[in-house]
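ok trying again, last paste got cut off:
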Amino acid sequence: MIAEVEPRKGAQVAQNLVALFEERARASGARVAVKHKRGGRWEDVSWAEAARRARDVADGLAALGIRAGDRIAVIGETNLEWILADLGILGAGAVTVTIYQSNTAAECQYILADSGARLVFCDSAVQVAKIRQVRGQLPALERIVRAQGPAEDGFERTLAEVERAGAEWRREHPHAHEERIAKLGRDDPASFIYTSGTTGRPKGVILTHGNWVYEAYAVEEIEIIGEEDLVLMFLPMAHSFAKVIEAVFFATGATAVFVESLEKIVENAAEVRPTVIPAVPRIFEKAYNTVITKGFAAPGLKGALFRLAMESFDQYAAAKEQGRDHASLGMLVGRKLVFPKLAHALRERFGGRVRLFVSGGAPLAPKIAWFFDLLGFTILEGYGLTETSAGTFVNRPGRNRIGTVGPPVPGTQVRIAEDGEILVKGGGVMKGYHGDPAATAEVLQDGWLATGDIGLLDEAGYLKITDRKKDIIVTAGGKNVAPQNLENELKTDPLVSQVMVHGDRRKFLSALVTLNDENARRWAAENGLPAEGLHQDPRMRARIQETIDALNARQASYASIKKFAILPRDFTQEGGELTPTLKVKRKVVTQRYQALLDAFYSEQGDEGGARPR
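nice, full thing came through this time. structure:
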């Protein structure tokens, strides 16, 4: 049996996510629940106001005929309206089906059809247009609720109309809401979250009210987020990482700060000065590369000192990964003259009050974690799957072990299978895949979920992820290589944006590399090169070769990259090469560049590999 995670002392144990939220709203009342920008100004929304609006949405859906167990989708940016839609759906006894704002119309159609959604909330005209484009293929879909703009026809309702209908309906059914909530148990489905489909068709993961309540209490117990924290929210709410932060926000009474857009993360952080920032590794990679690029470009003595310090930092980070200390003249110079200034610049970049960062959604390169640590910032890396409600392992404040994803959250058990696969059992494990009992049975047996990831536990019970089981490359010589480790190392080069290492059943490893456009253009200008066609320029190839050579020097021969190509454009979500959490879709990229990859291994291929046009 898995021990139940108890809530904070004296609190009532919530049986569902809505009850958890409403308990918090009653306790916090006029305190600020949400900060968001409207008309160019930051506005506060109290817990009481958020609870009133969420209940209006729930009763409005009841007025539209929504019944317990119905599926209702939400597609849009991370904002207050998303939270209100989610709470309204759950408050109506229905199930929230999450859709990424970046999903195409065809991808939306698949999720809506597979889930059998009756209604979909859209936050903008762009999302409404996507749904209307595929409406003819969705006979079960009855209506769109839009947060912005007027309803175009009878197929649409505005969010404001639904809220008004809810307030009116409640006057005639004053106790219906409480009765619905009382019937919602921990085993009832709360969310269908679809997998990213990197290796096949997306599967709808059924997560229950019990899953989210468990996560809320478990993470609250660890005390990563507290009542006084301002949590910067920009992760896509369709992802389980953002959903678990939502549940913890309800449990702890912290204030959620919604950014205006992904492009304004830094600007908004400087304005509201958050204390906790949950993010995917790409955010830390970009911050690191921005700092490094500016430092290397500095002229004269300032630039020379920076280069000396960063050369020593590379040795310092490598030593730290091996559990050793490292002292040198360069590190002494860095600690005295370089790193304090970088720390100040980064601190101001994120508003000056950040207490800690939480990283999840993909592996974080240890080198980047050590860099932030050196500057006085804490990044708590965690790990989980959609199938485990995201919050499964996480490092603890004051007990952070860089290079690991921490111990399991309270109430979760872990076991390492003979082949190294991580097995998990606990309150966050999914109920199953929607409509796919065979796929469920394949990964879930006797309560133990086979994660598909390979890892090991250290002497303190902290988990280290070594790779994704399906991603492990087995070379023609029978050697196993974890590509993510190599990719993460290469992405610490400021000129590199994305990397995909290839070589399964091949004679050696190869790589596809994309350039960081801004940094590459700056480098080109500094070196007197034209900004266009850099991916074909021999001097750029030589520069990237230096980074690959440095990586290869630390690898066994079978794990070194022998050939590579620089692609003419970066991977994007819109291009279909990246997931919404910015992980490379290996299958898509491999198929798209199959001819180029094959050329690496042909006898005619030159030492540097093919050069894409």
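cool. DSSP finds 20 helices and 26 strands in the chain. Residues 17-260 form a domain with the Rossmann fold fold (CATH 3.40.50.12780).
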